[in-house]
Amino acid sequence: MILAFLFFCVALIYSSVGFGGGSSYIALLQWHGMSASALPLLSLTCNLIVSTQSFVQFSRAGLFSTRRSLPFVMLSVPAAYLGGLYAIKETTFLILLTASLTAAGVLLLFPVSECGDRPDTPIRQWIRRFGFFLGLPLGFLSGIVGIGGGIFLAPILHLGKWAKAKEIAALAACFICTNSFAGLLGQMQKTGWKNEVFATYWLLPVAVLLGGLAGSRCGITILPPVRIRQITGAIVLFVACNLWVKQLAALKVF
Predict the structure, then answer these.
(1) How confident is the model at residue 5 (pLDDT cuts 50, 70, 90)?
(2) What pLDDT does 120 receive?
(3) Mean pLDDT of 191-218
(4) What secondary structure does DSSP assign to 168-185, as a single string?
(5) Of all residues in the chain, what percent carry a pLDDT higher than 90?
(6) Which of 11, 86, 114, 164 has its CA 20 to 30 A from that of 29?
(7) Contacts 24+ apart (CB under 8 A), 230-234
């Protein structure tokens, strides 16, 4: 019940910016003692549940643009599937996950102004010309570590002032939804569907569904975009710091 409540809180906060919460799900499950091989399966499943309903709510609010978002998704989906298939050692998996979360958390906390009718910035020009290729590495990385990838893409789009914060949240939800599905297929083909894991942790998908429904609604109507990004960035960095401490302790650095 405690784990389910924590998953509910994670889904509530992350879904308000279009994220699925996979980074924190993995941290919580690892803290709970789940094996590394099963982590991506449950994390991607919860990611898929939260991001799908978040995407639906953001779309109904008129915040999603298919034309502008499709280029980011086209390469990320097959890359996420291949990432899910890719076999990786547990130590490498944890280092890759922790480094990714650290970078994403710092970017989320980096102060940016809201997108407006201003001349193109160099980053926005680069995204318009080459953003199509961002989906390839981000999708592959998300498939490996069990995260939807939106937590990596959204900070880049914010820094480049690609769109308004809530429009970026809508794209992030779509990006995570599609990548989570593709990555989950790859993970299932690699390890199989672990029935015993979902039989034991069946309450977690229910908790994230309820938290995601409430969080995505808050992200659309209540919470200011800057505050949402700060809260999310702080959570991501907190998770990353805990993972760094565990890995350094395992290496007997201190």
Answers:
(1) very high
(2) 66
(3) 82
(4) HHHHHHHHHHHHHHHHHH
(5) 16
(6) 86
(7) 230/108, 230/109, 231/13, 232/13, 232/14, 232/17, 232/19, 232/108, 233/104, 233/105, 233/106, 233/107, 233/108, 233/109, 234/105, 234/109
CA atoms within 13 A on the CB side of 16: 23
pLDDT value at 207 more than 80 = yes
| Chain position carrying tokens 């659309």 | 220
H-helix or E-strand spanning residue 133? none
What pLDDT does residue 49 have?
92
d(Cα 206, Cα 134) in Å, to the nearest integer? 32
Using one digit for the tens of pLDDT, what is the confidence trace for 152-187?
A: 888 888 777 788 877 888 888 899 999 999 999 998
Q: What angle do CA 30, 27, 54 make, to 5 degrees?
A: 130
* Domain residue limits, the chain: 2-250
Q: Given the structure tokens 């995260």, which residue do they identify?
A: 147
Q: Tell me phi and psi for residue 224, to 5 degrees.
A: -70, 145
In a 3-state reduction of DSSP, which class is residue 44? helix
- Residues present in the chain in total: 254
Question: Which among 232, 240, 235 is positioned nearest to 102, based on CA atoms?
Answer: 240
The whole-number pLDDT of residue 24 equals 79
Phi, psi for 27 (deg, rounded to 5): -60, -45
Beta-carbon contacts of residue 167 (< 8 Å; ≥ 6 apart): 63, 64, 65
Q: Quote the radius of gyration of the chain (alpha carbons, Å).
A: 17
